[in-house]
Structures are given as C-alpha cells and as structure tokens.
Amino acid sequence: MVGLNAILKEAWNTSQQARQEREKIQALSLTKQCYSMKLDLLTNAAVVDDAIRFVSDRSNDRQVIAMNMMARKNQMSLTIIKTKIS
Predict the structure, then answer these.
(1) How many C-beta atoms surround the C-beta of residue 73 within 10 A?
(2) Where are the domains of the chain?
(3) CA distance 82 to 58
C-alpha cells in the first residue's frame, strides 16, 4: 500500500506537470491502475485476513519481547539484591 501510494502521488504530479498530452494520459492510466490495485487489495478477503494476522503476530511478538525484557530486568535486580545481602 505504501508503494502504491508513492506511485499514485508521483503519477498525479506527472499528470499535472505533463507538457505532452500522451505523457499526461500515460500518467493518468498509471493512476487508474494503482487505484484498481488498491481496491483489489482492500476488498480481497484473503489478503485482508493475512494482513490482520500479520499485524496480530507482530503485536504478540512485541509483547513477548517486552515480557522478556522485564524478566531480565527483574533477574538483574534479584542478582543485585542477593549480592548486597551476601
């Protein structure tokens, strides 16, 4: 989606600045193709499900990393306390 948005922006700019009619039509054609691709991606149930699963998995990964970091911090604190007691 990010790539398509970048292409759309450039195609729109090109269509507005084109000096030749052919160049303008080609830029507008590319714009139309990008919008069609975006629509296909956003309405394809399999793609949407995969994207949701991907985001959910990444969120879970971040939670696991955060819990591991907290466990290491707690372990270090316990080590310091044990050292001070000894």
Answers:
(1) 10
(2) 1-43
(3) 36
